[in-house]
Design the sequence.
């Protein structure tokens, strides 16, 4: 039988486990997928016909509760895929130190082919089924967006849970990735893409790691291709442009664009929404085969959509020096070995795309505490800043120019707390995976990240008195 996506994740797990002193019984428990709920439920279509929908929710690890992970809407969702994605969530949460086990859901529907009202009925029924089996709840299992779902679906999930769920006081925290108008948190929408670019910045900061690739340190001027310009890819591209990198290529499901001089990504998005395609975008080369973009010249590839984009059959043709896995599982194990041999550095998914779940964690905390991050501190901060300014004026006898005074008087908003906490988390975790990579001569950053995740989960089991 060919290896499944779940086998691929376990391949990485097993390779890293050899660099830990965790015993085989604990390793077996960590790598196992604890629970999978496979559902079939009827939903009425817009024409009145009833169809039977297939869905899943996998909870990979209960070493921390709730479990956490997105819900994917796509026709090819399968049990092994959600198990693999749930396992990645376990390791991802451990790498960025958020206190969740891993989970993932999937529903076999094509969100682009269906009406909003059909998708709403599917989402509400799927949520009701999860409630019935206690596969959702603020302290049990907390979904979020993934491929094919967004703030809209999260709002429907929250509303359904509020009506039927057992936990009304904390119902807000039953799902994250909600719109800010529906008790979401500022900065969640862009968190995964932004986190991936922060990860890249950390890698590019170390001359010792970057120079051997023939690159200079820093993001400015780097030529980047973003295969899969969806929600994650768009925000990764915008964050990279903000830091003076150049987006030379992008792809969507039905084509790609390449321009050595750099693409105006927002104009590309506008063109696609107006014409339905990337074709005809001025000044850029159009590729009818979206996979072709992977092989174009660039310094960095940020695959941002689906798994298994980089495989044994195309890995040797890549021209990038660095790959940032903003998607889950874009590089399969065979390709991973080829890239390592070729000296190409991969920033692994379980670190590079963790920004989403980090900010989901902030949203969950905000919802459970029933207070926004700035409410208790903002006014005090303004008063404290004002006092500082008054003391400075008294001591120096000088009055600051109004623009400088305004900077000093600024007090943080929710977005400031979220951004700085995300940056801090990504920085700390990078150090934690880079150091053993260098000092223990581990083969790559992926092995180091998995090693860290395995030790953290094993430690949680030990602290709970299981496998002491
Ligand atoms: N679906 C996202 C991921 O794969 C986010 C998960 C979450 O926020 O719970 O990381």
Sequence:
């Amino acid at each position: 039988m060919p290896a499944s996506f779940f086998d691929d994740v376990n391949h990485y797990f097993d390779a890293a486990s050899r660099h830990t002193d965790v015993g085989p019984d604990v390793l077996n428990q960590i790598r196992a997928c604890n629970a999978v709920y496979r559902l079939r439920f009827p939903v009425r279509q817009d024409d009145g016909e009833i169809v039977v929908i297939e869905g899943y929710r996998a909870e990979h690890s209960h070493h921390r509760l709730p479990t956490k992970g997105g819900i994917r809407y796509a026709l090819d969702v399968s049990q092994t895929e959600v198990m693999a994605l749930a396992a990645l969530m376990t390791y991802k949460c451990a790498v960025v130190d958020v206190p969740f086990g891993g989970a993932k859901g999937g529903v076999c529907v094509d969100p682009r082919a269906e009406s909003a009202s059909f998708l709403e009925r599917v989402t509400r029924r799927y949520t009701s089924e999860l409630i019935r089996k206690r596969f959702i709840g603020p302290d049990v299992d907390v979904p979020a967006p993934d491929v094919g779902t967004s703030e809209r679906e999260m709002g429907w999930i929250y509303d359904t849970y509020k009506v039927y769920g057992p936990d009304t006081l904390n119902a807000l925290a039953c799902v994250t990735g909600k719109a800010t108008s529906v008790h979401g948190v500022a900065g969640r929408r862009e968190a995964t893409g932004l986190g991936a670019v922060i990860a890249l910045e950390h890698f590019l900061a170390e001359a010792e790691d970057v120079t051997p690739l023939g690159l200079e340190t820093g993001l400015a001027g780097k030529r980047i291709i973003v295969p899969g310009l969806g929600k994650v890819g768009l925000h990764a591209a915008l964050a990279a442009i903000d830091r003076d990198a150049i987006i030379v290529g992008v792809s969507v499901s039905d084509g790609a664009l390449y321009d050595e001089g750099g693409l105006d990504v927002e104009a590309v998005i506008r063109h696609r929404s107006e014409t339905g395609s990337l074709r005809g975008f001025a000044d850029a080369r159009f590729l009818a085969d979206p996979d072709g973009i992977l092989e174009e010249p660039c310094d960095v590839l940020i695959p941002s959509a689906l798994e298994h984009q980089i495989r044994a059959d195309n890995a040797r043709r890549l021209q990038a020096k660095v790959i940032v896995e903003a998607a889950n599982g874009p590089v399969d194990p065979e390709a991973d070995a080829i890239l390592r041999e070729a000296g190409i550095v991969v920033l692994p998914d379980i670190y590079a795309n963790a920004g989403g779940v980090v900010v989901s964690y902030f949203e969950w905390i905000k919802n459970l505490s029933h207070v926004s991050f700035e409410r208790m501190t903002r006014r005090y901060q303004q008063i404290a800043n004002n006092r500082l300014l008054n003391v400075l004026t008294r001591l120096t006898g000088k009055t600051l120019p109004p623009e400088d005074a305004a900077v000093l008087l600024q007090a943080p908003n929710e977005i400031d707390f979220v951004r700085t906490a995300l940056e801090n988390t990504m920085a700390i975790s990078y150090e934690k995976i880079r150091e053993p990579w260098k000092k223990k001569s581990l083969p790559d950053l992926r092995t180091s990240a998995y090693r860290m995740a395995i030790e953290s989960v094993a430690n949680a089991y030990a602290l709970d008195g299981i496998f002491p």
Notes: The mean pLDDT is 96. The domain at 37-184 is CATH 3.40.50.10860 (Rossmann fold).
